[in-house]
Write a structure and sequence with these properties.
Elements (H helix, E strand, L loop, with lengths): L24 H20 L4 E3 L2 E3 L8 E5 L2 E5 L4 E4 L3 H7 L4 E5 L2 E4 L3 E7 L2 E6 L5 E4 L1 H11 L4
Organism: Ligilactobacillus hayakitensis DSM 18933 = JCM 14209
GO molecular function: DNA binding; phosphorelay response regulator activity
Protein name: HTH LytTR-type domain-containing protein
Amino acid sequence: MKIKLEFDDEISEDEVIIKANQDSSQLQNLYSMLQAEVTKQAQQAQIEFRKENRRCVVDVKDVLFFETSENKVFAHTQNDFYQVNAKLYQLEEWLGDDFLRISKSGIVNVPQVMAFSKSVLGNRIEFFDSQKELYASRRYAKKLNDKLNGGK
């Protein structure tokens, strides 16, 4: 299979074309992966981060977790937090495999998790380079533990 990248300043929108002499499961998998990535990027672009009534640009990879508080959704980064214009169930659909629901009121960015342990208060989640912590409910704890240990 050959892969080629061409640039054309006469087109207004990027386009990916797959040319083949016959259909195969490998091509269908490639098409599905590309389609899923385009959909994910489009949905992530819909997430609006706000701080003190100003729109902010935040890379979702920098988000430690999303949580609800007083009927609002907040995104927490290492040193700050932002209000988000989406519901948790929407974020759960949009964000992809690195993010996982950990309670009725929270979604965590799994690659940002440094430690996950049981404590007197519950299943505590700690993050790299941050003092922030969060708790996973018993209902979601096994799924998070499995994902942290290399499962899906």
